[in-house]
Write a sequence for this structure.
């Protein structure tokens, strides 16, 4: 379980960014989380509560947008969603697709700041 | 001044700090001409035996060393030291994976001299190491025949973060009725095109092929470095890890 380390990195990065933007109170932290990021949403949410307590982010909400995996199909020459992580192939033509276009994100997108 | 909440765009990778350190490590490794290989697997896959054999086989013809991560004990480092290659243990305490900064710290006061290969054995874990780039050139995911053919389906993310899958303990395949075709099919289902090598560190079966694979990758990276130096445009594949 490395969600605790990840939550600490989120708090560090968010505090750093909040300071750059005038040190107001952070109400929410927006995160994009890919299905192939290796991070579990539920575990991350509970770790975030724990880690943000008694920091400048105490009481802030972690809002997670889950990003499904999309691959590039060399046959269709197009981006395609996949049926599951256990089947990395084009849902239209069945060609195995090794090029992941999205789904590995672990990105702090935005902060909601008051003041 | 308005007290209305405002939305500030950030768009930064949460593991930015790790990535910065990993990038610096990769740059240093390239400049020093050392090819870095990391190993990930679940506990008990035979990483240490495999690595001991690899170090012993490479040592007569190449300068090799290993960093080995573990939650506790220095047993693995002691086992690897039998290869007579320089070995250093990284004890992570409660942390279930290695991070780039741990590699940087371990290297800081370690006088090993020039190397051809540096191996990094990650903590036995098929989940957490997938998120952390260590600055390696090649990441191996190990899967032993005793673990069952469906491991890739259960842990697709780690297979995505690795460059090659190595099936270990091949000497036990028959005993445990290992279904090689299904294992290969499952690896290709989660990571199409992934190279797979099968071997037994105990009997040595398949080890030569693996060592050839390593040497070829090391040489091809050097080739890339040379082409870069002479300003030839080449396609360099992006490093694994996230």
């Amino acid at each position: 379980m490395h969600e605790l380390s990840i939550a600490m990195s989120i708090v560090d990065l968010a505090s750093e960014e909040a300071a750059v933007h005038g040190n107001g109170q952070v109400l929410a932290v927006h995160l994009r989380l890919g299905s192939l990021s290796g991070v579990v949403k539920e575990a991350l949410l509970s770790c975030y509560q724990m880690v943000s307590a008694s920091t400048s982010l105490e009481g802030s909400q972690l809002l997670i947008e889950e990003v499904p995996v999309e691959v590039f199909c060399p046959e269709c020459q197009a981006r395609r969603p996949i049926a599951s992580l256990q089947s990395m192939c084009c849902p239209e033509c069945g060609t195995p697709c090794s090029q992941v276009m999205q789904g590995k994100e672990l990105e702090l997108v935005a902060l909601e700041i008051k003041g | 001044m308005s007290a209305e909440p405002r939305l500030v765009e950030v768009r930064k990778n949460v593991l930015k700090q790790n990535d910065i350190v990993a990038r610096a490590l990769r740059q240093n490794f390239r400049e020093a001409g050392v090819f870095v290989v990391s190993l990930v697997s679940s506990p008990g896959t035979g990483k240490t035996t495999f690595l001991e054999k690899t170090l012993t086989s490479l040592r007569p013809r190449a300068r090799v060393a290993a960093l080995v991560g573990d939650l506790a004990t220095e047993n693995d480092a002691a086992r690897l030291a039998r290869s007579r290659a320089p070995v250093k243990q990284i004890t992570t305490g409660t942390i279930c994976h290695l991070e780039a900064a741990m590699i940087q710290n371990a290297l800081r006061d370690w006088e090993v001299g020039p190397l051809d290969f540096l191996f990094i054995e990650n903590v036995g874990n098929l989940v957490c190491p997938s998120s952390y780039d260590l600055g390696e050139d090649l990441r191996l995911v190990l899967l032993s025949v005793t673990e069952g053919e469906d491991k890739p389906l259960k842990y697709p993310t780690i297979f995505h973060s690795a460059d090659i899958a190595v099936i270990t303990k091949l000497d036990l395949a028959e005993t445990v009725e290992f279904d090689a075709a299904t294992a290969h099919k499952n690896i290709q289902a989660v990571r199409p095109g992934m190279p797979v090598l099968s071997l037994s560190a105990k009997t040595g079966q398949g080890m030569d092929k693996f060592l050839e694979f390593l040497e070829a990758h090391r040489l091809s990276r050097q080739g890339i470095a040379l082409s870069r130096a002479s300003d030839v445009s080449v396609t360099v594949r992006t490093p694994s890890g996230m």
Notes: Residues 228-242 of chain B have pLDDT under 50 and may be disordered. The radius of gyration of chain B is 19 Å. Chain B has one domain: 16-227. Chain B is about 35% helix and 20% strand.
